[in-house]
Amino acid sequence: MSTSLDRRVALRDPTARLERMMEIREFEGRVKDLFFEGVVSGTTHLCEGQEAVSVGLAATLRPTDHVTCTYRGHGVALALGCEPSAVLGEIMGRTVGLVGGVGGSMHLSERAVGLMPTFAIVGGGIPVAVGAGLSCQVLGGDDVAVAVFGDGATNIGAFHESLNLAAVWKLPVVFVVENNLYGEYSPIASTTAVTDLAVRAGSYAMPAETVDGQVVDDVAAAVRRAVERARGGDGPTLLEMKTYRYSGHSRADTGPYRPDGELEAWQGRDPIALYADALVAAGTVTAGEVDALRSAVTERIDEVVAEVRQAPEPDPSAMFGHIHA
Amino acid sequence: MTKLRMNQAVSAALADAMREDPAVVVIGEDVAVPGGVFKATDGLLAEFGVGRVRDTPISEMGFLGAAVGAAATGLRPVVEIMFGEFLGVALDQLVTEAAKLRYLSAGQYGVPLTVRASVGAGLGFGAQHSQCLETWFYATPGLKVAVASGPQTAYGLLRAAVRDDDPVVVLEPRRLYGGRAEVVTGDDGIIALGSAEVRTAGDDVTLVALGGTVPVAQEAADGAGWGAEVVDLRTLVPWDVATVLDSVRRTGRLVVVEEGPFSGGWGTEIAARVASELFGELRAPVHRVTSPDVPVPYAKPLETRYVPTVEYVREQVGELIETGRTPRPWWSREGAHR
Ligand SMILES: Cc1ncc(C[n+]2csc(CCOP(=O)(O)OP(=O)(O)O)c2C)c(N)n1
Ligand SMILES: [Mg+2]
User: Fold this and answer.
1) Mean pLDDT estimate for chain A
2) Which domain holds residue A106?
3) What CATH code is carried by the domain that includes residue A101?
4) B213, exposed or middle or buried, with CB in 10 Å at 0-12, 13-18, 19+?
5) Is residue B100 over pLDDT 80?
6) Against a cut of 0.80, is the pTM above it?
7) Percentage of chain A lying above the pLDDT 90 cut
8) What are phi and psi of A174, to 5 degrees?
């Protein structure tokens, strides 16, 4: 049986990157269905449309690097290598979940792939990544820390304090902002004084890049440059990924606040389609192989859903675990 | 009287407060155009405009702090904090600034600020979006704390909070937003801060509940073989000592029903006071029915168990009355707790 680590290492291969993006897309579609079916309780924040950011990032990091991420974390977890059954198990509150079902959709974690418990408080994970960077610096070695968060999170104090702290301490941290143009129901222009969030690094004398977040290899290349700086002792970088979430913010939200045609325009630059086309053009795969890949992913996720539906729910005693060491 | 859901009762209270006083402004994330994530500020933008109903960036410290300053200088802001937990990033402004401004200015500056926040478990939102959090505020002199238990209290306590000249935290149990009931609006619907409500009469026990546990305690009492006075505390700071003491004097037994960890819960304050004042008059030890000392778990069967249920309250109260001794909580009976 393959492990989470194998799934992670596989991403060096372009076809595996394509497949993983397809897996995330398929997975999120199922989570949505299961939510409406009532077997996923609470809330979900899907990342359909943002798959290239998750996969480009994971393709570049080592399992010993540390990642903090948000409630919109299914894609990052799957990209980093977490097994789909463990991620879905957590979302459905089953014992097979990443943390046994006590966390839920917003709280995914697997240390073997470097995923710290995802944060449901906006901005919560940003200073924690700075601290992980401090560990890397003080303990030696050249591991790095990565904080993944949304555009809306750049308006919270923790973002600014964290960038400054990482800059003055020259920590090996990469700040990755997924600029999907909305924070909940608010368009970025109504809440944020700048449109290009990369400029915010300027206040902290920190290098930054604006990246096309729909192109997985562009994401990977930008992350590689930032990670190399960090590993080399040259300090933090802010990467702004321009991307878009196809679904609404959470749960039943369909995004009625979005202007007509915006979603369709972004779907015209779909990260999976773009990459499939690029790989076909380069002769890496054939169109037929792309279709076969998609069917295989669908089949696998079908199996995962069937498996997790059968998985047991935790016993009440499970809530008492892991409160103290 | 109109039948309103609790979130509609909140909107109605805000609208009435804004009509009454042009200094009242509403500030929060997605409160204006979308009318609030819980639809508790619906319709305000249309009636009062962007000047008085403001959407904010995700900057709780910034906009709550701004509300403190605005309150101190002429406005009467009502801030919505979508989930109580988000107060964590703004706590300084509330407990260390707002709560002390009057004291530190020798009364020259008051802070007529209302902070509304949703609280509580039951909706599957996980450990960071399901806590009750009264205890973050109740030991801070300078703050007042009220907790809604349904549409009427949501309306009445909020109206009183907005009129109050000091900072008031009004907590709204999020699983109750959808519940409907008749609501008296206008001046008659206002509920003075510091007044509890005795909801039912009964001889055997006083059940003191707050917010989300009020309907639970009520239902537990309704079908039970014993008679209870169910007291909705409604305000935690200041709390209605006289009403609670009167009731327990009549019944001889006190059970506080709390959602939240056993250790350090608000009920410790009630229990200690009653035990001390009514020493010698009690027929049973004061008792607290609470959640266990754990973060709120996600999986449905766990979350359901976490919040005191009707059956659990009934069982605990029944045993207390029958044996005269403190019943052990479910987690210690089942050996789940180390
Ligand atoms: C401190 C805090 N405030 C508010 C929220 C509620 N909330 C959850 S997600 C969200 C929007 C975040 O937008 P963004 O950072 O752009 O990330 P996205 O959801 O678009 O990925 C808000 C306001 C929260 N979880 N934490
Ligand atoms: Mg966003």
Assistant:
1) 97
2) 5-310
3) 3.40.50.970
4) buried
5) yes
6) yes
7) 98
8) -115, 120
Q: What 3-state class would DSSP assign to A80?
A: helix
Q: Are B28 and B101 members of one domain?
A: yes
For the sheet with A145-150, list strands across it.
A66-68, A145-150, A173-179, A237-242, A208-212
CATH number at residue B79: 3.40.50.970
Looking at the structure of chain B, the number of domains it has is 2
For residue B30, being part of any structural domain is answered with yes
Distance B22 CA to ligand 1 centre (A): 31
pLDDT > 90? residue B59: yes
* C-beta of residue A264 within 8 angstroms of C-beta of residue A49: no
Q: Probe ligand 1: pick from A178, A184, A241, A244, max atoms within 8 Å of CB?
A: A184
For a substitution probing ligand 1, which of B58, B64, B174 has the most ligand atoms within 8 Å of its CB? Answer: B58
| Residue B94: predicted pLDDT | 98
Q: Which residues surround ligand 2, an ion (CB under 5 A)?
A: A 150-151, 180, 182-183
Encoding tokens for residue A77? 């977890």
Q: Would you tell me how many other CB atoms lie within 10 Å of the CB of residue A257?
A: 17
Model confidence at A143, pLDDT cuts 50, 70, 90, reads very high
Q: Render pLDDT for A15-71 as a digit per residue (tens, 0 to 9).
A: 999 999 999 999 999 999 999 999 999 999 999 999 999 999 999 999 999 999 999
Do B288 and B207 share a domain, yes or no? yes
Whether ligand 1 lies within 6 angstroms of the CB of A183 is answered as yes
Tell me the residue range of the domain where B298 lies: 197-333
Catalytic residues of B: 129
Domains identified in chain A, total number: 1
Does A109 contact chain B (CB < 8 Å)?
A: no
**Residue A197 domain-assigned?**
yes
pLDDT of residue A134 exceeding 80, the answer is: yes
Asked if residue A251 belongs to a domain, the reply is yes
Q: Does the beta-carbon distance from A93 to B298 stay under 8 Å?
A: yes
